[in-house]
## 1
Amino acid sequence: MCIAVAALPAQALQCQQWQGSTLTDMREDNWITGSVSSTSEAFGEGFENNASGAGPPESGWLLAAAGDPTEETSVQTEPMLVVEFDPAQPIRQLAQNYLGDADQWPKILESSGVGSILDLQPGQQLRLPVSQVKAANQAIRLSHREIERANQAGAQLFAPQIIALAISNYDEALIKRTLGEWLEAFHLAHQSRTTAGEAYEICQKNRDGTAEARLSDKQGSVEGQRPRESTWRNIQRNALLVEEEKVRTLSGSTAQITFRDASRLRLAPNSQAVIQRLRADPLTRTENTKVSLIEGDFYALLADNSERKRFEVEIPGIEARVDSGDFWISHDADGAKLTNYDVAAVRVAARGETIVLGRNEGALVPADQEPIQKLDVLLAPVPQAPPQDETAIAGQVLLQWTAVAEATGYWLEIASDPQFNRMVTTERGFPQTQFEADSLAPGIYYWRVSALDRYDLPGARSNTRRLEIRSDTVPPYLLVEHPEPGEIIREGPVTIAGQSEPGARLTIDGSAVEIDDQGLFQRMINPTEGEHELTFRVTDRAGNEITRSQNFTYMPDRPAEISYASGMRRIAPGHFIVNSNVLSLAGVTRQHAKLRVEGENGSPLALAYADENGRFRGTVPLSKDHQNLTLRVTLPSGFATTTHFEVTVDRAPPEIFLDSPLPRLTTDAELTVSGNLSEAAVLRLNGREVAHQGRFEQRMELADGSNPIELVATDAAGNVTVRRWTVQLDREPPEITDHQVRIAADENRTALHISITVHDASGLARIAPFTINTGTGHASGYLHYDRVSRRYVGEFDNFGTMTANAKLRQVELMDWSAP
């Protein structure tokens, strides 16, 4: 994809090819060149003729900006490209086309003063920082080239702090570019290029110095012991190593020793080596180096342009003369192992026997008297994923390669530079053909892998793959185009459509929906009638998630059904009856519908609205005892339904006529209640409905004691008549609980006093006849009931001939229920 300056003809553009937001290659053959005049227009005055296609321009506006800090103002003030927004082209595609990174779409909104993608309108002008992006990328490209040039000159040895600063600025520039902070990226890349240039100059001046070595890289704990030192000390990165110094790595640690000419050794974990000789002849500019491997293993990469005279490796009982620039060697109690990956030879001598290892050949040198065994190493695996120059998301990196026949395991190396000077991860011995590099921080990495055979000899290394890892914290893009928020849809099925980030996972109400390569998605649903809330959840490959809700109402054009509440009294369907001048209208219809009641002349009488469940309630004033009314139901979509109903007003309650009054007191346990009603009504006797046809007759059982009787008549309008009685059932005779007979005599008179205490539930007669045995005969009389004391009493003078033995013989008691 080319990032073009507006108003220039396509054939006149000079651009870089992109993969995501990262330059796919910094080499000169990846440039597309155009005419001299058009290029000068695009990049400013002073652009040199580069139409030959020999490589990228070395002057012009962008390169001047990268090389001259005074041009920073030009980068900042360079006008932005203005384009009109077309809904047919997603804004992510716009960011990809013009900025080389689809994830930079929020920056387009920001520079255009647009708060949200929902605010975008067709034809709206968007401002794109195309020139700023070009300047930043050009500066980053040149910085990368200058760092590589300095490293090849030995910057890791002669100027480690300076080149580390250049690399740090370069890495920070990559991060700033990912975040869309292009001016900061440009400035950091310019600083990186300048610093790397300083490191290169230092290297050129020191290449003719005395021989020395440095610990240029380390992972974990690395220790050293110089001559005449009795203890081991921790060695820091970039520490100077002297002749006869011992170096060892602990578990999980690696160390890289870099010599003056940029040759290097990489010690594996649990390894120990001695730098026995470091000699340089300034006159002939040659070096002699000898390293003794005590235990463990290391591999060596000797500088291609080295004028080294001799490099020797010593192992107890073994001498190795090395012309190769790429070899590996191991030593333990069982013997030694060597492999050569270069066309130049490695000569191995042990116990009077000498063999020469060519390219991709190895040797086993046992510790006993067995002969040296020479064999071919395994073929190199082929990296499969990610592709070259792929941009991956931090935490989601899976490295994969092809399996190698007879491999027992694999050796993976990940570094932050293509020469593997700055090792990041070393994993050896695992059997899988993939590795989850989830711990890698954002940045650019290089990785390679080799197979291990049954002797643990590492085979040929694979080609190096370049990988950029980004920290993606930008929520994924989501635009719901249909339905619109709050839209009322009157025809089905309903189409749900919009745009999102390609490769992201989308669910709508929990169901997965596919996003195509253009970022478009669509789904058809058949919703139920009513309001709906759609929940969209988009998760991109980095795990960033965005959730959005969208409401719409599905309301097809069909008559609204009305179900009136059961509590509304009616004479017939559609004919209501009330007992006042107000009709309470209630029922269920379509949700959020508007209900309007109109009089016979069309005048509005009442207005009500249905809730989300379709329930409505309202009151309608009535001006006559009988009216024909109209109910108009209008749905939120505008579709209206009309229905008619009648209302009759009845204010007179029904009358109840009994055939005969009900008794207050009775000894009969069965009571008949009968009579007539003045009109049709619901009749209830003591709460139980009585069937009737205008006339009623109902028998009921009475209980001993007081029995309440209630008749309730309710007509169709709700008018109510209530009549109540109490009937006493008494089937028990009075009970004498106490009695007393007393004779009082003096000289003037003889008096008889009688007192009888009686209990009865229904009441007693006022008079009670009695008979008394006087002692000489019988006598009779009447007692009177005293309601206060509830006793029958009497006092009689000269009541026959009475003796002290007079006794009450008989009393006749009668209650009110007696027939």
## 2
Amino acid sequence: MSAWRTPVAAAAFALGLFLWPAVGNLAPVAGWLVCGLSAVVAGLWLAPPIASRRGPLEEAGLAEPEEPAIDALSGATLAPRRAPAWMPPMCVALGLLLAGVAWGGFHQHRTEGALVRRLAPTQVTVEGTLRVDPESQERGWSAVLDVSLVRWGDRAARIDESVWVAGYDEAPVAVRGDRLRLTGMLRWPDDPGFAGSLLRRGIGAELLADRTERIGPSSSPLVRAAQSFRAFVGRSIGRLFPAREAGLLMGLALGDDSRLDEELARDFHATGLGHLLVVSGENVAMVLAPVIALGLVLRLGRVARFATGLGTVVFFVVLTGAEPSVMRAGVMAGIALIGALLGRPRSAGVALAGAVLILLVIDPALVWAIGFQLSVAATAGMVALASPLAERLAFLPRALALATGATLAAQLGVTPVLLYHFHEVPLVTLPANVLAFPAVSPALLLGLIAASLGVVSPALGRPVAMLAILPMRYLEMLADRLSTAPVPWVTSKGGLVVLGVGFAIVMLVAWWFRGKRRIPRAALVVAFGLLLPGFVWSSALGAGPPAALTVRFIDVGQGDAALITSPGGAEVLIDAGPDEQLVATALSALGVKRLDVAVATHPHADHIAGFPAVFGRFPIGLVLDPGCDEPSPSYEAFLRAVEQERLPVRHPRAGETVIVGDLRLDVLAPIACAHGTASDPNNDSLVIRVSLGDNVVLFPADAEVPSQQMMLDEGVPLEADVLKVPHHGGDTSLPEFFDAVDPEVAVVSVGQPNDYGHPVPEVLDEIRATGAALYRTDELGDVVVTFRDEVVLIASAG
């Protein structure tokens, strides 16, 4: 049981941190702390005295228990404390859980009491150190700044607090570790979700920066050395490798995605290989192993090897920006090095738990960091299951069995976390990671060797770089081929139930495999005789085309996305919403394997931001796009994705028709790109009339009065059974347009809370006046329309 003490302690403390937001208000922080310490003391007091505990030889029956020295001298016998064996560890675990709750409360109170929080809203000038590289966004940039000095009015204060920085100009030419001076307005965000995220991360306020100045590099010599090394290596990589491979190597080696090819990033994420593009514990091991081996070759003493290894780990952690996964691996490596120095090596499970406990005490905010959660879950999965799974795969070659076992174990560990946060896990990730395993280390190590040699002379680095490109190209090809493979995805709606049930299943699997238990024959008969055919049958039913024309208006918040499926098997997606992943996840959950047509109605982000992920995950037959020159970051990303995925594109105009199997798509607008209207992009919207026989659905996207008036003047056929309400129900439509459509059903795709005032009540009244029944995605979630026996059926999937 001793091997479980540290893991149980770490798990209890982490759970306490998680529980603080839910139970913290039940008692003051001091009360939680006193209760926790009392439970720990009680557990230690109830534990048997050290002298009465049996050692491993006695436990094995190989030696007689030694009489305590005091007893031997006095002849007295100490009466053992009478308590059930489970009570002492239970008390200690409960105490650490309560201490975790208290520590989470202290962390929150410290953030809420930060000076930058109390100053908001105030115009200030701050000086501090960048914690992360500035990240460019659709509008401006963002970063996290650790503030050391704040000035407001004629006052100033030295502090140690953090702010979230948002700028609306060009991102500063600076990297993490650099010192900046910023002037702007301190505020606390109005968005409860964003505000809660900042609070959990220990960030005291948001700074809307209007002036930014780089003061200089970090004041720490170690950080400056890491910055210089990173810059040297980055320049060397850029000289030696093509742009695509240079970006991949920067991601593999340093977790720097600033040069990463967008198509490559999509492919890696769609195949579950995205973890390779961020620095992880595996990188720490690959960097530390050769250093330790070199120390052994040079016959360095134990202390010298410890110092060299620890220095390497610390430098690598600083070099990669102290990412949560690297800090976890770095502390684990430090614990292992200390154990080796003292001649008392620790198991991987104890080292992992010790690292988690140390890091959460230092920075409680890590418990909410998704990267930290995934790193711990993956490592715990490998510690618990890698060897047992490899043993069950003994029919494979040894190296392949180990790689497969480690991949399966890590995937089992992270699956509950992925389903909780991202609601999806690609099943292709298992073969993808197994097939990628042999190439990752050669790509990384050869790439770093080439870059290091290239710092001295490009001529020295080029031959090694040519070798490094081979495994990199293999990884690229693997990700590209598997990203659109017709393999199902495991999806969920998230929530604590999914997380809890997922971890319960993982622990049950670990208990089963580590105990070398065999599945009873009766259970196999039930599984394969009853459950498996049922699963296959239900999957077959779900995967086939519907019995009638079906339109699913996907709830994407403030935006549009609709999937049309026909009895003939045609599948058409009209718009992909404002979220980069939501629609791709929804399509995976619906069992979509390919899209015959993807329609980007116009270049606004709330309609097209999700398309790059869709293009990277599904084969696409044809893309329709108005093709009007409306530059925006979202539209540029859309166009790059179309080009990178080599998709066929058409820019149809009013009067054109696209036939997709048994579906007919008539384009009603635009005649030409709009110029001089109140919103040219909206009036450039492709207006699509989708029909299957007499069943008709009209998608006017965000077409406004000029576009609607043109269609009315031209006398185009607007009648439809179902109308997707234009522009989310905004006050930009003509009553005559609704009269001409005369729908039975009208669906408003809209999000709440809504800064635009959509939908406008008067517009909804105009639609109801036509006799149409109104349905809203903000109230019902997904709205599913099915045509059956001349009846329009409505279902809600909210």
## 3
Amino acid sequence: MDKKLRDQFNRSFTQEKYDTYMQKIEALHPGALDFRNAETPVFVPRAFKEKMLSACDEIIEVITDPHFMELTQNSIPKDMNVPGEDAHTQFLVFDFGVCQNAAGELEPQLIEMQGFPTLFGFQVYHSQLTAEYAALPASYSPYLNGYNKESYTQLLKEIIVGNLNAENVILLEIFPEQQKTRIDFYCTETLLGIKTVCLTKVKADGKNLYYENAGKKTAIKRIYNRVIFDDLQKQENLPPIIDLSKEYDVEWAPHPNWFNRISKFTLPFIQHQCVPETYFLNEIKQAVNLNEFVLKPLFSFAGMGVVIDVQQSDIDAIKDPENWILQKKVNYAPVIETPNEPAKAEIRLFYFWKNEWQKPVGVLNLARLSKGKMIGTRYNKDKDWVGGSVAFFEM
């Protein structure tokens, strides 16, 4: 997006440089990188960064409103409601597409948001290696609000580990060794000194939870939750797991209910120029031009179930319209120049929220590049200069 840096990067790009860069990323945890890493970062001018941060500020006003819990009371399916919910999530992410408005200007458009973690550990190493690879000038940074690698890592540790012993804090996932994002789990272990534990390995003794750590029965006091319950429910032949409908003597970071409270469910309640019109399917009272909208299930992730070219037959086939939204299409701008066709970009901003803070603060990011209809591997098969990346912001 910054033309000077883009031209400079593209002129100096060689396949040999990229291969060396990739070797360093894969060496973080050999065999764990299970998604494509793009050839280029995204260089974001200050004005565009400020537009995203301004939109986030207004969205956060909705989330911090005293009535937000009441507003989102129907967001949590009964079979996914976990006891012990706290006052707010510790983590939020906002996904902005780099789009073009009617006047031909670049503007951010919110695609999705979630009260749930993402690649918080991996991006520490990824952004550093990418900055070195891109010969990033000192006036650009992947971090927000003055954070850097050290202060970001310290904040992440304060939120997840706090004053507990690291052995009493776990990263919880279902079959973590099979997840495409597992490199992030291993990077988080390195950063924070905690263990990644499969949900099937967590045991209950009354209200107390524990796991086996090097053969020792070890109490779990806090859970850094990475389990997506929609994914959990799709597991076949699942071994016995603890009853998550019971309340345990454990702290969650974040509590599972926040995955649904801050999600696609929240979008219809937000009115902002950087948030596309969004409606609950069951609440649409007048005809809309389906060509202008995408159809999304509320309870899914990673783009699963999204219908891009919506037909009336797609609407008619839905038996639970209260669990679907129509979101106005946005015009992704193919602004990332590559050696062949230009790429489109999404930027995911990370926000952290300590318990003593009144609201969350932006800290870091990741980016994703695409040449297909949507962001995601299945839309970008056999393409280059696509995949995971990082945005560097003009300070």
## 4
Amino acid sequence: MGPEKKGNLAISATFSGEPLTESLQFWADRLQLPFSIKHAAFNQVFQTLLDHTGLFATNTGGVNVALVRWQDLGESPHLESNAESLIETIARAGVQFSGPLIVVSCPCSPLFLSDLNSAAFATRFDEELAKRVAPVSNVHLISSATVQEFYPVASVHDPISERLAQIPYTADFYAALGTILARKAASLRRAPYKVIVVDLDNTLWTGVAGEDGWQGVRLDAGRLALQELLLKQREQGALLAVCSKNNEADAWEVFEQRPEMLLKKQHFSAWQINWDPKSVNIRRIAQQLSLGADSFIFLDDCGKECAEVRAQVPEVLTLQIPASSSDLTNFARHIWAFDRGKVTAEDRLRVESYELEQARALEAQKAGSLEDFVASLALQVTIEPIRTESVARVAQLTQRTNQFNTTTIRRTEAELKSTLENGSLQGLTVAVRDRFGDYGNVGAVLYNLASSSLVVDSFMLSCRALGRGVEHAIVRYLGEEALRHQANDVVVRFIASPKNALALRFLDSLECSGESGGLYTRSFRIKAAYATQLVYRPVAGAESEPRQKAPQLEGRASAAGSAVMDYAGVAESLNTVPAIRAEIRKGKPTEEFAAVSATPGSAAPRNDTEAELAKIWAEVLWKPSVGIHDDFFELGGTSLRAVELLVRVVETFDRPDLALSTVLEAPTVARFAAALGTQQQVRCLVPIREHGSRPPFFCIPGVGGNVLGFRGMAAHLPPDQPFYGLQAPGLDGSETVDDAKRIAALYIEEIRTIQPQGPYFLGGGCIGGIFALEMAQQLREQGEEVAFLALMDAYNPAYSKMISRFKYLYCHSRFLLQRAIGKTERIAKRLFGRHDKDHRRGHNQPASPLESNGRNSAANDPLEILRRVHDANLRAGQRYTPAPYAGKITVFRASTRKAEPYQDDYLGWGPVAKGGIDVEVIPGRHSDYEPRVHAQMLDQHLRLAQSMSLQRAARPTNPSAWEKAVSMQRPVEAYSS
């Protein structure tokens, strides 16, 4: 079997989810999970869930994750309706995706929860979300309480990093959240273990029953916690068994005489209490339960016994528990192998069904013959078409049934539902009951009708229903179904697997012709008339599992990577957030942080301030030491690391006035220490790259006003291209500006300190594009040349006012039609107001998470500062109506966009640009495209504009000839409204 195809762990969050990558990548590497980690654009959860060609919908073979913080969904009066729409969208999308969807209700901020109405709102919608997704088998809900229960952290929220980069949580909480996500994703990638076998002495109790007696053994907190966990596993469908070297009477006496024992004898489905090797006894239990040993977990305190079982029964997951009571408590809670997906009704009935099977076995021993026993069961087999409520169970059967499964083709609920709805396959469910009780839905058949045959794609039956004639009843039904459709034959496909010999033996027992399709594939052609007359004739031992050859690590291990998962090491050593973060730091640095180390012999700190900063620099960069002149970014610092760095500095030196641009302007310890010596006055102009022989490029960020996001793009530009960012006024707590013309004038004043005269090269992303356009207008009015203007995914906020009434109505009609696709009309209508509101604001970003929780903040609170800057930029963009621009505009547009009321290839700038438009399409989504590709495209246009500017400066005497020559360098797109 070849290596498993890698899927995505696809994440969409209402806040910044990128800090999760560190812990998720650690677990993916540590446990060899077949995942690549992908993030959707910021706060695009609705769009990611609804996009039929997006990250979630196309994530075949992977796991999708939606992280929701209720306060991020807008502000009153839309907050509640948005929350209702999101819950409905999650429930519907979960059924449609081929892979599982994990939804995490993340903790709201203390400020949001300090309002009683907001706190009640969060609680109510947590409950509503849980209720709505409970019946959706493909959706798996994790509450914030669950994260804290398993991986508690002292400090969850970080208002400073939220102000700086919309990262609302501490690094510890992100590590905890990443771990619980990796743990859940791992459980969804493997079939659950079916049997937990436990030792007794020094495992379920402390002491030796045969020596200490039932009175002398001790039941400490750790052993009781283990028993409680085992009981919970039993409630979720796991079978419990005992394998102990002991006198049986002494062992059971502890259960009977000690009232503190949570586990009782009736909780165990099988046991072997004797002095034989434990590996032998485990095989006996597997035979007794008719289950493969690779679905077993064995717990024992003795290293020698564990080693014997590992050597003789390697397919069993054997875990040695710690001796200490306190260690055992934590160890048991962090055995990832105990984790399950969504527990179904059949799972909860599994233990009862095995108990009924034991009663049937006793009855079989009393019967004179197997035929008499089967006749006494009064078996009732109900075969009917698959109903909607049965789809989840049939999908589960395809995933879990091995021994009697003709093809072992695994199907998710979404895949099965799609297959049935499009008519490519039809399906049957098989329910069984007898005088002892109800087996439930134990079988399924998927088939289609082709010419003169009924072709069975998959035929599966739970092992607990074998040997009673159920499989014969199914074939009779298929024969009758074939004749009803004038088909002469029933053709059963068979694909050999390491476990499905029982299915092959049954097919071989029928009168049929076989056709080989290859080394592992065969077809069995059964005459329909013969099938309708098939009668079960019991043969002793026919239902027994064939004796297996030497055990092989197949099935579970190869399908899910369990063979390489160090469950014991994780449970013992990586069960707390500090331990996990320490292990991440110890591990081999990823490429992201594998930059050069500190310069050998670099200068040491000269004072206490530099010493403290150097310590912070080293810890954030995971370096043993950092010199005071070593550049943060050259040492491997990233945007996320810069946020962590600044948070540490703000907390250590009590400097809430610092902005992220400080790290760009002072990337060394020495320069940062000097910057700390003065009260920060945040300038708008931020040098990202000061040096280079080419004219500088000035660029304005989106609604948040921070320029750090430009660093990735600037780093991929050639080294001779200077790059300056223009961050929003007011980030230092001073007065904000909410007028685009005033903002543009302020920016012009600042860029003139670097470049007093044109030609100027300007750009802006999102709402920053509006300010860049206004700067270009004012500079041209002042007689300056604007040689290049780049609008990067920036929408014209006044486009609806510049088009005809007919086109206005057409655009809205098309928008509504697109949003209705996928049977989401009601959701789309609810979202329309919010979406349109975002559009009127003049940018493609969702409402700020700070809008709903900053109203009670003090004026100098960091969160309030960011909120005021955010809102001021929004007002400036919303009020702005661009005048016709005589120059040329270059539009950079993301290739993937959500549905907009005014969809236009030029993003609405056609009526404005009188000098023509160039359009470049960048692969990716809004504000989430690849910086390298963006930089390459930007550099091509900058070089051309700079070259043409130089040629204009040296214009020849024949202007018309010169203009014709330079116009041929690159065609200018004409715009027609």
